[in-house]
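It is worth pausing here to work through a concrete case rather than discussing structure prediction in the abstract. The textbook approach is simple: state the sequence, then state the predicted structure, then interpret. We follow exactly that order.
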Amino acid sequence: MKLFKRILFFLLLVLIVIQFFPPTPNKSDTTPPTDLLLVENVPEKVNATLTNVCYDCHSNHTNYPWYAGIEPLSYWLAGHIEEGKEHLDFSQWDLYSAKKKAHKLEEIAESVTEGWMPLESYKWIHKSANLSEEESKAVADWASMLRLNYLKAEKPQ
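Step two, the predicted structure:
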């Protein structure tokens, strides 16, 4: 029993100490000129969906929930955001090659159509991230049409 209390005390101490060492927030004061929404002509409904559902994990600006200031939850969130931006970073969109943009657009269409994006763990907390069929179709159709433009740009004339 004494060992159990020591372990519990140690864990509590660790939880208290890590409160003073949060991860760096994913918040930018400005939108870079390379951002997807500045570079592409995104329809209003798709723009709203991307901003409200995708940009938290796939851009330089995350709207954090209330629990983001609690360690170790903030590290878990930071990990999700970092991984999301590794796969697709809308803030760096215009730095991608035409080939990479076409591939990312294909993935966007596929992910919303098949329902593996947004992540289930994100949808648990963010009920507004549960895309309707209409929202999913709008994003998928937009991504597919824009992808065709990039595929055409790749082909030599």
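Step three, interpretation. The mean pLDDT is 90. Residues 68 and 74 are 5 Å apart (CA to CA).
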